[in-house]
Amino acid sequence: MTGFKETLKDAVRQMSFRTSLDKLKKKGVQQVNVLGIDRIIALIEAAVHRSLKSRLLTTDREAVADATKAEFLRLLRSNEDLQRQKSEVEQARERAEEEIDAMRLELGEKQRALQIKLEEDALVLASRYQGEDFAIAQKVAAVVQAVAKDPEVTAQQLEAKLMEVVMDVVSGEREAAETARKALQDREVHNLQRRIKKLTDTLSVTEQRLQHVSALKSVDGGISSVYREVQGLDGGDAQAGKKKELMAEIFKANLMLRKGGKGA
Amino acid sequence: MSDTKDTDTNVEGQKKDHGVLYIGMDLGTSRTSVSASNGVRETIYSLVGYPKDVVSKKLLKKDVLFGKEAIEKRLSLKLYKPLEKGVIKYTGEDMDADAKANLQAAKDLIGEAIRLAKPRSDELVYCVIGAPAEASMKNREAIIEAARAHVDSVMLCSEPFSVAYGLDWLEDVLVIDIGAGTTDLCRMHGTMPEEADQVMFEIAGDAVDAELARLITESCPGVQFTTQMIKEIKERYGYVGDAPERVTVELPVEGKPTPFDITTQLQQACSILIEPILQGIKKLVATFDPEFQTKLKNRVLLAGGGSMIKGLDTAVEKAMKERLGGGKVIRIEEPIYGGSNGALKIAHDMPEDYWEQLK
Fold it and tell me: Are B357 and A262 in contact (CB < 8 Å)?
């Protein structure tokens, strides 16, 4: 019983709202009547017990009271579950958003790194060729100078011959070096491209998940009604007969309205 | 126990087997209030705003704004007040673009009001909307159409009737519902009120605002204000009869906040309600069964946002004593929710098969 009272107290607290004296004053409220929560709980209990006592036998009363308490607790739990589910969905959304941010950051960094790498490789390659060409030219010049001392061989013949030999060597070297460098470069580029593709795919999947979570969030869980079944007029109502007639008239007017006639 | 409950599904195909949510709605020119059987009670200004362009849409991050939020962001919005004199503006045969926009705004407002009631998707939602007795057929159809998009079944009823029903006063009672656009008087005698039982006039909250604006403009040279500012002053300080205290408000004059004592102007503006109310009471009492006239005069209910004007009940009672030989006026406890609470009670009491037939 004490536990139920505490639960009821918690429920009343949850349904209440906080406001400041300033806000009340702004609304033009100068004085407020204060009613303690214990008093409210006692009033609810007294009202329920009095009502049950006047309408039901002892056994029925207890059964109805137990059923009502159970239903109250069920509704409370149902609302708590909804709140928890809502909070979980919101957390999932936040996590998804964080993941996307991190992925976007990583993707950006990788793309920048790839660009820098490609530019660096182009520079290194150019400077290496320049060095090699210079070395080859020097070697050729040295050979030409040495042979020039032999009067029987013309300079053009010799130079052409030497250049042929040297260019053979050089082109072979270049080919080998180029193949090696290309293989290395291709591997890096391929790795980076694979990583980018993977990140892009993951980003797309996560964005879809985010959209799904956002859609879920917009479908608010709502708050449970106190009624599990359709109600209708209470037969014990002092004005039940009159109310029944009024309900029939309202319905009739609405039915006519729906059919395009005058009413409601 | 409903058999149909187990088979009902919503548009997403979800089973509606969790319970039944009843919603009562008071669709007013100034405010729209909802009361629901899950304990939710909410009220919003009947204002709808749509972003003016793509930039404002991106900035506001919303397609449509309502109530106070719409007022606050009004500079970036196309603002609509879809209800006028208690009914949706311009619902007729030949609708121009403005009329269509207003109708859409009214639909969005009704949808928002229902969302405010926080319905669960697995519950049946049955709604009763209090609409002015004067609403046209097209208007009622528009309200029903707007609501049906969000609920399982919906009915309309007369606003003053729902106030009286909410308080269980079904016989020999005269309800005065002071809204923003209209003041409706309705006499109840145990059956549904007919045309002869109702009196409606357009001197209501908006008319008081207009009169107060006129009086302030006349007496406070150079003063600047908006309708919303005037409305807030009236809602906070409005009174008739003897002034409870001096009313001083700060209003800008050439950009500088300047204090003005508007005690007299406020009293004069609010007092314009009394005479037409008295005329309405007189008409409804005089045409009532003579045997029950005294009883009717002693059961006058004051409801609606306008009834919050301080001293109005006493002032009407005093005028009734002088001109009708007596009477008793009772202000309902919750003027903002009186209509929606009554509509909720009607929804609760409505038999299941009626709801089913109107699905």
Answer: no
